[in-house]
Structures are given as C-alpha cells and as structure tokens.
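Thread: Mutator-like transposase domain-containing protein, structure

OP (GT): Posting the sequence first so everyone is looking at the same thing. Length is 125 residues per the record. Can we get the structure tokens written out before standup tomorrow? I want them in the notebook alongside the other entries.
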Amino acid sequence: MRIAGEEEKKLAIESGEIDIDGTPMCAVVADGQWSKRSYKTKYNALSGVAIIIIEYKTKKILFIGIRNRYCLICQRAKNTNVAIQEHVCFMNWNKAATAMEADAVAEGFKRSIELHGLKFNKLIG
C-alpha cells in the first residue's frame, strides 16, 4: 500500500492534481462488506472491511480498514468466567454493524495524508 501511495502521489504531481496547499490529490474508489448481512432485519455482523483503491490510474489498494466486534479468546474467557489471557485482541468495534463500512472508509480519508502524503479528493462508491 505504501508503494501504491507513492506511485499515485507521483502521478498526481505529474498531472498537476495539487491542492492550493501543495498536497497532491486523487480520486478513489471505495467498497466494503460485512461478514453477515441480512436485509430488513438482524444487522448483526461480527466483522466488516472496507478498502480504498485508485480506479483510474494504478488500480492498487491504498487503505484497508477492518472492524471486528468479536474476539474468540475474550469470549471464551467471558463464557467460562476465567481471566483473559494476554493476547493480541483484534476486537476494535462496539457499534452497529451497519456503520462498519462507512467508518472504515472515513478512517482511510482521515489518514490519507499521514499514510501517503496524498489527499483523497473524490470518492466513487
């Protein structure tokens, strides 16, 4: 993703797509999914992901945002009333499943300059 960002930044500079503050800009395509989707009821997915890619130029991934509302180790400890052992916990979401995708895309936009020195100025979803 870092290399894709560098490539896209270079292309933006070459084509003159630069903001008034001198930051290169590019249009991005974003899409996402949840692990379990139902229509009209039970929006209760435990995991979701969103990606941001460049469509018109490099077609490479610039950002991946993952949201998890479940951790097997934490859940087992809770179910058996034992202390949670030290582990890498991937649970990072406690809100509605319906908000996972939008939050991950928003994070990608917020971090675009930090990650790539590039502004995502247009979104195709």
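GT: Both are above now. Quick notes for whoever picks this up: Residues 13 and 31 are 26 Å apart (CA to CA). The longest helix spans residues 2-14.
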